[in-house]
Design a protein that fits this description.
With 160 residues, the chain is α/β, with parallel strands linked by helices. It contains five helices and five strands. Helices cover 48% and strands 21% of the residues. It starts with a strand and ends with a helix.
Length: 160
């Protein structure tokens, strides 16, 4: 069983494939090409995510949802990416839910008030990563926290 955490972005999407023991099978960042138009950026991300779907038999995926405090243009772009991820997951028959940052942080930290920096430091404390830098790698560490929440929620039989 594999679980996928996704932290979609307009510049860099973090991802993490985790097993039911919370071991990271693969994690990384999808750096979005700056020279592409919006459709090209979405297409590039989807190709990369589909490669992950094809590589692993994903049981469940969680994708971070956006909350309305973002700039409206950014919010629109991110919801297009999230919608495309939901479509792709449906095509691959992967149970996928959107989850707000406060919800997955509550599962991972025990508090929905935890910040990105808290997630970054907790991931470094749990897993053996070298050379990660906050603000450069926090998309990936957030995806790890999201994948952790995905495993927890699956084990508890709770919907996101």
């Amino acid at each position: 069983m594999f679980f996928l955490g996704l932290d979609p972005s307009t510049k860099c999407t973090g991802y993490c494939v985790m097993d039911e023991k919370y071991d990271i099978v693969e994690s990384g960042k999808i750096d979005i090409p700056e020279h592409e138009d919006e459709a090209g950026k979405i297409f590039y991300q989807i190709e990369q995510i589909e490669a992950i779907f094809n590589k692993y038999k994903i049981t469940k995926a969680l994708c971070e949802d956006q909350f309305s405090k973002l700039n409206i243009d950014t919010l629109k772009k991110l919801t297009r990416v999230s919608g495309t991820i939901l479509y792709l997951a449906r095509k691959h028959k992967i149970d996928t839910s959107l989850i707000y940052p406060t919800s997955w942080r509550k599962v991972f930290h025990g508090s929905g008030k935890a910040k990105k920096e808290d997630t970054f430091h907790k991931v470094l404390a749990i897993y053996d990563f070298d050379n990660l830098v906050f603000k450069h790698d926090n998309d990936m560490t957030d995806a790890i926290g999201i994948a952790w929440a995905c495993v927890d929620l699956h084990k508890e039989g709770v919907a996101a």
